[in-house]
Design a protein that fits this description.
By secondary structure, the protein is of the alpha/beta class. It has nine helices and seven strands.
Length: 231
């Protein structure tokens, strides 16, 4: 597993583990995760392209990949890109590892801890695309400061994303959708690319579905798919 990095005290909210892993899942965690997990340096920065055996043309980062179906499909469809996924929920990590193994993916790396710790050590303008798909909305007002989209995190992403890079955000929670739009449209580094309702109501063809989208549709909630350009 990656070496621990001493950073400022941060609180993380959310589950780290669910039901006990099955034997096959535990095998992937024990054998595959150590090969894919990103070791954070004690100091300095990490060039994300150096994390892959063959330097990728693009580096894409998914923050909170859940079950990993979106990340795995993007990696399969884009072998020229390097995909980095951040997730602390062990069961979700195990699910992604199974897909990586089954598909023989060589362009996936995993940070199995708080995404902010990894963001701290990436160099400026090193990311070509960032995904934040169906994050925990923390719908209660008193929990709003737990949402990932905050001014400080957007400032950090703005530093890490190349000019023209894309930030994709999806949610089915009206509170979070409004929150995300309010923060992103007034941030000087991001421009919403939507030109009409179809641009945010319909999932683009190159945007693989997730289990969270399917669940939202089954329960009668309409997901929103937002794309922002780094200007």
């Amino acid at each position: 597993m990656p070496e621990a990095r001493c950073i400022e005290d941060r609180r993380f909210y959310g589950r780290r583990k669910g039901r006990p892993l099955r034997k096959g899942q535990q095998h992937h965690v024990d054998t595959l995760l150590p090969r894919l997990a990103i070791a954070l340096p004690a100091s300095g920065k990490v060039d994300p392209r150096s994390l892959f055996a063959h330097a990728p043309e693009h580096v894409w980062l998914e923050i909170g990949f859940g079950g990993g179906e979106h990340l795995a499909e993007q990696a399969r469809a884009h072998p020229e890109a390097g995909l980095i996924g951040c997730e602390v929920f062990l069961n979700g990590i195990a699910t992604l590892l199974a897909q990586v193994s089954a598909l023989g993916l060589s362009n996936v790396r995993i940070h199995p801890e708080d995404a902010r710790d990894l963001l701290d050590v990436l160099p400026d303008a090193s990311l070509d695309r960032v995904f934040l798909l169906f994050p925990d909305p923390w719908p209660k007002r008193r929990h709003a400061d737990r949402r990932f989209i905050q001014p400080a995190n957007l400032d950090l992403l703005a530093r890490l994303m190349k000019p023209g890079a894309e930030f994709r955000v999806a949610s089915d929670d009206p509170t979070y959708i409004g929150w995300a739009l309010a923060h992103l449209v007034r941030h000087p580094a991001f421009a919403w690319t939507a030109r009409g309702p179809g641009d945010w109501r319909a999932r683009p063809a190159d945007w693989p579905a997730t289990r969270y989208e399917s669940k939202a549709l089954r329960e009668g909630r309409q997901p929103v798919f937002m794309r922002f350009a780094r200007v």
